[in-house]
Specification:
single chain, alpha+beta, Thiol Ester Dehydrase, Chain A, six-stranded antiparallel β-sheet
Length: 122
C-alpha cells in the first residue's frame, strides 16, 4: 500500500472525547479514495458506490499527523475497487482500515459508463 497524503489534526476535527471525529475522517477518506480512483480511471466523473466495514483501530489526537494509504484491488469496465488504511505518520499506528471501496465511472446522466483503464494498467 502506498501512502499518498497527510492531514494535521486540529481542534475543530475533534469529538467530545478529544479524538478525531469519525465522520470527519470518513469524509477525508471518501475524498482521498475518490481522487485515487479518478486518477486510476483517468476521469473525475465518478461516484462512491460502496464502502465496506470501517474498522476504527486507534484514536488520532490533536496535533497528530495522519496519512492515507490507498491501493488498487480490482476493476471492471465501469468500476474500480480500492482499499484504504489511515495511520499515524509518526508511529505508524493504524487508525482505520477499509478493505473495499467501490467507485463507479458515470456519464452526464449519472449512469455507469466504461472508464479509461486498460488491462495492463493494474
Amino acid at each position: 500500500m502506498k501512502f499518498y497524503s497527510r492531514r494535521f489534526i486540529k481542534p475543530e476535527h475533534l469529538n467530545p472525547a478529544n479524538s478525531l471525529f469519525g465522520g470527519q475522517l470518513l469524509s477525508w477518506i471518501d475524498e482521498e479514495a475518490a481522487i485515487f480512483a479518478g486518477c486510476q480511471m483517468k476521469s473525475s466523473s465518478l461516484v462512491t458506490k460502496l464502502i465496506s466495514e470501517v474498522n476504527f483501530m486507534t484514536p488520532a489526537r490533536q496535533g497528530d499527523v495522519i496519512e492515507f494509504g490507498l491501493s488498487l484491488i480490482s476493476y471492471g469496465s465501469s468500476s474500480i475497487v480500492v482499499a484504504c488504511q489511515v495511520r499515524n505518520k509518526l508511529t505508524h499506528a493504524p487508525i482505520v482500515r477499509i478493505d473495499k471501496m467501490v467507485f463507479i465511472h458515470v456519464n452526464e446522466q449519472g449512469l455507469p459508463e466504461p472508464h479509461g483503464m486498460r488491462a495492463n494498467a493494474a
